[in-house]
Write a structure and sequence with these properties.
Layout: H1 12-27, H2 35-56, H3 61-66, H4 69-80, E1 87-90, H5 106-117, E2 127-131, E3 142-147, E4 170-175, E5 178-187, H6 188-193, H7 198-220, H8 230-233, E6 235-240, H9 249-258, H10 261-264, E7 269-273, H11 275-282, E8 293-296, E9 299-302, E10 305-309, E11 322-326, E12 330-342, E13 355-368, E14 379-383
Parallel strand pairs: 2-12, 6-14, 7-10
Antiparallel strand pairs: 1-12, 3-4, 5-13, 7-11, 8-9, 9-10, 11-14, 12-13
């Protein structure tokens, strides 16, 4: 690793430990758990269960819903009772996860579905900061920092010599929360006919919509009033491919060695490209007429580094079509998701048209963190020949 970050991922056990700590502390209080503490305990338990279910990979959202008699009663009153007031449900907002229209687990299902299609959302590929329990519409800016270790070396200290303090290059950035929204309209009859499948359908639909909408900014966003895309924040490798239709071994070798060796050795060092560019890369051969790309244990490798296929990356002639570097320096921030169901709209999704509207909202931001300020960039890009 070539940098340290102040944000750490949380495990299933850590959520359980937090819930247990709150409960133990409340036993010393005569009044017991407050409403806020009870809500937080429920959030921790739900998040722990979501992580456990993610590990097993065997459950659907509809299965979770069906086991909850409280949620079933709530949904039946809402949908079959024709409630006309807007229903806003943030992840972890309700006193009990069982009485929310959208279960807390939906966030994990949605992010899992997105990351399987686009590695720019995948915590195993990039540096993902995700806090689904935070209110999506109240996301505060997050400060991140790191230091450059691409050239630092320990020094030999002689006996009785004065040790000098050396400050490594430090860099930082601020991640905001730009709003992304998608709305779908459904009829009352549709809700009644597929009541429990609605959550699965929404999860799949919103996953694809958010992936396309947010993903394009994670790849090419300008960073001004929108997320900074990976190719925008990356440094120019100085390589323009010899052709827009044919990629060669020299192209990839020049890009590879344009990156500092410290970043090439990172566990998250990888190539990122569109499927169209990947097809061209598969045809590239070395001097012995062997393909440059090897497939080992279902992993695509180019010069012993993984190749990640992102549908959000550009692939046209003259574009920054190939990114290469330590993706732990590409920091992506995603908020929790909010879903609003309402029949008080002016269009087709209104009670007068016999329908309801579902709006999904999520905040997102991204940035390439370069502590070296350009002297040793952690990620570089190559340009396709025009």
């Amino acid at each position: 690793m070539t940098s340290n970050f102040a944000v750490l991922d949380r495990s299933e056990d850590e959520f359980l430990l937090e819930a247990d700590t709150i409960t133990r502390r409340a036993r010393l209080n005569v009044k017991g758990l407050s409403r806020t503490e009870q809500s937080r305990v429920n959030v921790c338990l739900a998040r722990s269960a979501a992580l456990r279910n993610h590990a097993s990979g065997t459950q659907k959202l509809s299965d979770i819903v069906k086991r909850s008699t409280e949620l079933r009663a709530y949904a039946e009153r809402l949908i079959f009772g024709r409630a006309v007031t807007p229903e806003t449900r943030d992840m972890g907002e309700s006193v009990s996860p069982a009485n929310a229209l959208v279960p807390f687990e939906m966030y994990s299902f949605l992010i899992d579905a997105i990351s399987q299609v686009d590695p720019l959302f995948d915590e195993d590929s990039v540096r993902l900061i995700s806090k689904p329990a935070d209110p999506p519409l109240q996301t505060r800016p997050t400060q991140i920092a790191g230091w450059d270790a691409s050239a630092d070396a320990a020094e030999l200290v002689s006996e009785n010599s004065q040790e000098a303090m050396v400050q490594p290059l430090v860099g930082g950035a601020t991640l905001a929360g730009y709003m992304f929204r998608k709305e779908i309209e459904v009829s009352f009859e549709f809700e009644q006919d597929v009541l429990w499948a609605v959550l699965d359908l929404m999860s799949d639909f919103f996953a694809h919509s958010l992936r396309r909408g947010v993903g394009i900014y994670l790849a090419t966003g300008s960073g001004s009033s929108q997320p900074q895309g990976i190719v925008t924040g990356a440094a120019d490798s100085g390589v323009t491919t010899s052709s827009s239709t044919v990629l060669t071994a020299d192209d990839f070798e020049d890009v590879y060695f344009s990156l500092n060796a410290a970043y090439r050795d990172s566990p998250k060092c990888a190539w990122v490209m569109n499927d169209v560019t990947y097809k061209k890369a598969r045809k590239a051969i070395d001097g012995a007429q062997r393909p440059l790309i090897n497939v080992e244990h279902d992993r695509k490798l180019l010069m012993d580094r993984p190749v990640l296929i992102s549908p959000s990356m550009p692939s046209t002639a003259g574009s920054k079509a190939i990114a290469f570097g330590d993706l732990s320096h590409f920091v992506v921030r995603l908020s929790g998701m909010q879903v609003v169901r309402t029949t008080q709209t002016a269009g087709a999704g209104s009670v007068t048209y016999g329908g309801a509207s579902f709006k999904a909202r999520m905040r997102a931001d991204s940035v390439v963190l370069d502590p070296s300020a350009g002297s040793a960039p952690p990620i570089v890009y190559a340009t396709l020949h025009s």
